[in-house]
């Protein structure tokens, strides 16, 4: 085939669905690590959106030298997500050491 | 001196500052005397030097501008002094009489502590400064500076013995009454700025004179407003109530401020702005009516008073009424003439009274005096000279000035000035009656104080003495002036020469002729040939005989074997009337009920209701309470639960999407 | 055929992502997410972004999720509570808001995205060489910054997870 028969719009819809699923996971789960997991899902949904646009504007380079911006951005998001996951999990380990639980609802001393 | 008129007021101002400093250092009285009296003396010399310079050169009006004081939009006010015939006359007697009174004060205030002595002379010097600024000022605002300054000094000096509640209250009363009048004065200044664009005498007066018809209505308003200030400062109805209580101050203060200088400021103002009053004759009519009524009203009160200074106070109010009556019929030169002669004899009367009070160990009640002429002859003879002057006996000073005013009033009636001829006749009648009453109560005072036998305690009798030289010398000088002072204004009637009426001739340039566009109606210059020479002589003889009649009635009532019998019979037959007059027609009580109590109640209301409840309670405390309440409610947002925060973030994102759509 | 691959991958992603957030066992959650990542990698590959697909698998699925597994096993978390347990209002509001956001995004996609043109295969330049060149030239600064970020994360993780009595 001469062109890839996938419409970027479908990818965007998929990204939206995944994003919503991830958001629901973040807001509704009580376990800290599960929240993190859902967060990773949301990040990937965002990655997918970038990918769709990178695909959409492929070959029609928006500005000279910046044709690969979309993919580069995804690359960076992955890097940042990795760093964030590392630190976050270390945080959870520390939290577990303190309270023997990672139930997020238990850590509520900073209240009125 | 003529190029640097500012030196004249500066001298007493320096005296004020130095005396404050000396008082602070508790310096000896001799230093204070040198500074206090010397500064005024130097100012007198400087003034006369300037006057001589002025007379030698041809210009009639000299203005020295020093710097621009106020610029606001289109209005500028310069700090400038002017010299013209009116200023010359005022300065001549203000400085000289002021100097004499300062000399007198050396002896009178001798018994005070060093600091009080210095404070006294400091305030007196400040007063001289303010009065000179008032008289030299070449614009209404600058005059107002002096006007307020003399008001302030009046307060300071009346309340000199401020530890006494009555004295302090009297000082307050004087200042407040003055201030009420000043509202009118200030409004008058504003109106002048609004109508003429300038309150500089050399600008707006010629402007008004050139177009009398055009400014007629406004001039009436301005004249009335300014006159309200004059009723306060010069103690006319309705704001005169402060002057009798002002007698609580030391006697030299009463002499200087409340006889010779400050109270005449109102008359000076009216004469200075004579153009305004002549253009708006309704205002001038009001001036005449108020003056005439005040003259007789105050005279009636004076008859019944027993305190020697109160008699003189009401006498001052009455004589000021004469001056305003004179100005009110257009006889401006006559009014100023009376200002000058009054300064001489009234200052003398007060100083003499001070001498008497000094001798009677502080007693001021005439009922326990008597026979003092044997003990203090100098005081007696000078006092008598002043009394003859105020009663209008020929050839003493008061005769010429008072007769001039009454004559012009009668002439105004005869020539049917402004169509109100009948009113002027009534005013003339009031004036002549007041003259009778004046002669009566003044000689009552003399007889009760100096004649007969001493009616006081034995202890007081031992103490009776003539006053020291520093006190009697000014008395003598003023006595001479009371005798010969009238000669500067001998009417044409007697001499056949109009030019021998020196003062009227000299003050001619002050009465600026009105523009050609006016009709004869507006001119308020009452010429003597409104009545014939025959009638004039008749009036003269009439006033003289009335005065002598008053003296005789007083003599028969208060001297001789049957002294005090006649008055006693009269008061017994009319007790209510006597009580009414003795209590000055209860005017202070009326003012208290009608004005002061409502104001107090209003102030209390403002305090209790508005300040406490509304401002403190609702606004200030309420704001604090609302803030606290909001905080109390909002703190429940801090649940400490991370998921709630995440939810808030999500909701915020949603909101943002919706808004930014 | 490409379309079918895409659709299959999409279906997989959706199903397993739901599993990833809803299941009670954390191990299952993590492993489901691995499947999701595989599906996404497949989509990247289909779109011609080869390098990115590889990175996704190696870094994301292979490192990050394995880290998650390690931590789960370290902390010995057996099972987690059901979805939405404990706070009802929070759950309902959370769902509502998320769906609302989703709806907004969908509407935005429908109305705002421009129509797409056809894309020739290979024109995405998703291979290692173009991306590497781009990283080293145009995007050098962010590249270096990210390395700095990684160092910071390293140090941070070390400090946070350290035992306290040292």
Approximate strand percentage of chain A: under 5%
Describe the oligomeric state of these chains in a short phrase: heterotrimer
Uncertain residue segments of chain C: none
CATH top level assignment of the largest domain in chain C: Mainly Alpha
What's the helical proportion of residues of chain A?
55-70%
Reading the helices and strands of chain C in chain order gives: HHHHHH
Structure annotation, total helices of chain C: 6
Instruction: Could you tell me the CATH topology label of chain A.
Output: Helix Hairpins
Task: Kindly report the name of the CATH homologous superfamily of the largest domain in chain C.
Answer: NADH-ubiquinone/plastoquinone oxidoreductase chain 6, subunit NuoJ
Biggest sheet architecture of chain C: none
| Ends apart, CA distance between termini of chain A | 64 Å
- In angstroms, what separates the terminal alpha carbons of chain C? 59 Å
Structural class given helices, strands, pairing of chain C?
mainly alpha
Largest sheet of chain A: none
- Unreliable segments of chain A (pLDDT under 50, ≥5 consecutive)? none
CATH architecture of the largest domain in chain C: Up-down Bundle
What is the top-level CATH class of chain A? Mainly Alpha
How is this structure best described in words?
The complex is a heterotrimer of chains A (112), B (661) and C (166). With 112 residues, chain A is mainly alpha-helical. Chain A has one domain (8-106): Helix Hairpins (Orthogonal Bundle). Chain A has helices spanning 8-28, 32-56, 69-99. In chain A, helix 1 packs antiparallel against helix 2 and helix 2 runs antiparallel to helix 3 (69-99). The mean pLDDT of chain A is 86. Chain B is mainly alpha-helical. Chain B folds into three domains: 1-138; 164-582, no CATH class; 588-659. In chain B, strands 1-2 form a two-stranded antiparallel ribbon. In chain B, helix 1 (7-24) runs antiparallel to helix 2. Mean pLDDT of chain B is 85; it is low at 516-529. In chain C, helix 1 (2-22) packs antiparallel against helix 2 and helix 2 (26-46) runs antiparallel to helix 3 (50-75). Chain C has helices at 2-22, 26-46, 50-75, 88-112, 128-136, 140-161. Chain C starts with a helix and ends in a 5-residue tail after the last helix. Chain C has two domains: 2-126, Four Helix Bundle (Hemerythrin (Met), subunit A) (Up-down Bundle), CATH 1.20.120.1200; 127-166. Chain C is mainly alpha-helical.
């Amino acid at each position: 085939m001469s062109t890839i028969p996938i419409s970027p719009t479908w990818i965007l819809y998929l990204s939206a669905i995944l994003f919503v699923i991830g958001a629901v996971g973040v807001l509704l789960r009580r376990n800290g690590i599960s929240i993190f997991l859902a967060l990773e899902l949301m990040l990937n949904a965002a990655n997918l959106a970038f990918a769709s646009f990178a695909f959409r504007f492929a070959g029609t380079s928006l500005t000279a030298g910046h044709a690969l911006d979309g993919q580069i951005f995804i690359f960076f998001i992955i890097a940042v997500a990795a760093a964030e996951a590392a630190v976050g999990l270390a945080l959870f380990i520390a939290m577990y050491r303190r309270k023997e639980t990672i139930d997020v609802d238990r850590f509520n001393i900073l209240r009125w | 001196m003529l190029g640097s008129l500012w030196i004249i007021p500066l001298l007493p101002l320096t005296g004020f500052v130095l005396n404050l400093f000396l008082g602070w250092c508790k310096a000896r009285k001799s230093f204070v005397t040198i500074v206090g009296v010397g500064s005024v003396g130097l100012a007198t010399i400087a003034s006369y030097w300037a006057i001589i310079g002025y007379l030698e050169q041809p210009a009639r009006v000299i203005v020295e501008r020093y710097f621009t004081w106020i610029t606001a939009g289109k209005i500028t006010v310069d700090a400038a002094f002017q010299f013209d015939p009116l200023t010359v006359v005022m300065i001549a007697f203000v400085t000289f009489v002021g100097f004499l009174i300062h000399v007198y004060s050396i002896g009178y205030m001798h018994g005070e502590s060093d600091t009080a002595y210095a404070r006294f002379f400091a305030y007196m010097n400040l007063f001289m400064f303010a009065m000179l600024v008032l008289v030299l000022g070449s614009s209404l605002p600058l005059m107002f500076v002096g006007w307020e300054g003399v008001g302030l000094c009046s307060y300071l000096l009346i309340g000199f013995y401020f530890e006494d509640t009555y004295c302090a209250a009297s000082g307050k009363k004087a200042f407040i009454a003055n201030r009420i009048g000043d509202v009118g004065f200030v409004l008058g200044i504003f109106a002048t700025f609004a109508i003429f664009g300038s309150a500089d005498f050399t600008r707006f007066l010629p402007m008004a004179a050139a177009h009398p018809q055009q400014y007629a209505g406004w001039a009436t308003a301005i004249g009335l407003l300014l006159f309200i200030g004059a009723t306060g400062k010069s103690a006319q109805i309705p704001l005169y109530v402060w002057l009798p209580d002002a007698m609580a101050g030391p006697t030299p203060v009463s002499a200087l401020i409340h006889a010779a200088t400050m109270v005449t400021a109102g008359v000076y103002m009216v004469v200075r702005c004579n153009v305004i009053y002549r253009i708006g004759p309704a205002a001038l009519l009001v001036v005449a009516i108020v003056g005439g009524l005040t003259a007789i009203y105050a005279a009636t009160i004076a008859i019944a008073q027993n305190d020697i200074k109160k008699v003189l106070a009401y006498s001052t109010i009455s004589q000021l009424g004469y001056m305003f009556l004179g100005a009110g019929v257009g006889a401006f030169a006559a009014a100023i003439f009376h200002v000058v002669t009054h300064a001489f004899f009234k200052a003398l009367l007060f100083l003499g009274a001070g001498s008497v009070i000094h001798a009677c160990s502080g007693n001021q009640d005439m009922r326990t005096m008597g026979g003092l002429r044997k003990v203090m002859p100098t005081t007696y003879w000078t006092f008598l000279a002043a009394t003859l002057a105020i009663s209008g006996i020929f050839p003493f000073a008061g005769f010429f000035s008072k007769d001039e005013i009454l004559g012009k009033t009668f002439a105004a009636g005869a020539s049917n000035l402004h169509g109100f001829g009948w009113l002027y006749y009534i005013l003339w009648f009031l004036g002549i009656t007041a003259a009778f009453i004046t002669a009566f109560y003044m000689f009552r005072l003399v007889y009760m104080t100096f004649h007969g036998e001493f009616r006081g305690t034995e202890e007081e009798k031992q103490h009776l003495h003539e006053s020291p030289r520093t006190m009697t010398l000014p008395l003598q000088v003023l006595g001479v002036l009371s005798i010969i002072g009238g000669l500067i204004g001998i009417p044409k009637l007697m001499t056949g020469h109009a030019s021998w009426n020196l003062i009227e001739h000299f003050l001619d340039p002050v009465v600026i002729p009105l523009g050609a566009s006016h009709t004869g109606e507006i001119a308020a210059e009452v010429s003597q040939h409104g009545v014939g020479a025959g009638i004039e002589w008749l009036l003269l003889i009439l006033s003289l005989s009335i005065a002598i009649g008053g003296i005789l009635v007083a003599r028969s009532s208060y001297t001789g074997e049957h002294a005090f019998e006649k008055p006693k019979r009269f008061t017994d037959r009319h007790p209510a009337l006597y009580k009414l007059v003795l209590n000055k027609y209860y005017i202070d009580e009326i003012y208290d009920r009608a004005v002061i109590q409502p104001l107090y109640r209003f102030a209390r209301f403002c305090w209790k209701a508005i300040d406490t409840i509304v401002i403190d309670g609702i606004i200030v405390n309420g704001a604090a309470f609302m803030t606290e309440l909001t905080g109390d409610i909002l703190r429940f947002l801090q649940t400490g639960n991370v998921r709630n925060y995440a939810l808030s973030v999500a909701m915020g994102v949603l909101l943002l999407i919706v808004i930014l759509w | 055929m490409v379309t079918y691959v895409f659709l299959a991958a999409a279906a997989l992603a959706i199903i397993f992502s739901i599993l990833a957030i809803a299941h009670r066992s954390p191990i299952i959650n993590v492993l489901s997410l691995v499947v999701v990542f595989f599906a996404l990698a497949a989509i990247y590959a289909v779109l011609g972004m080869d390098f990115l697909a590889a990175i996704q698998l190696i870094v994301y699925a292979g490192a990050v999720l394995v880290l998650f597994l390690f931590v789960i096993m370290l902390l010995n978390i057996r099972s987690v509570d059901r979805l939405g347990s404990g706070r009802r209002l929070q759950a309902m509001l959370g769902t509502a808001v998320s769906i609302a956001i989703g709806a907004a995004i969908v509407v935005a996609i429908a109305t705002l995205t421009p129509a797409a043109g056809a894309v020739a295969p290979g024109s995405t330049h998703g291979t290692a060489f173009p991306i590497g060149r781009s990283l080293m030239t145009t995007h050098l600064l962010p590249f270096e910054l990210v390395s700095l970020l990684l160092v910071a994360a390293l140090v941070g993780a070390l400090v946070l997870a350290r035992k306290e009595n040292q």
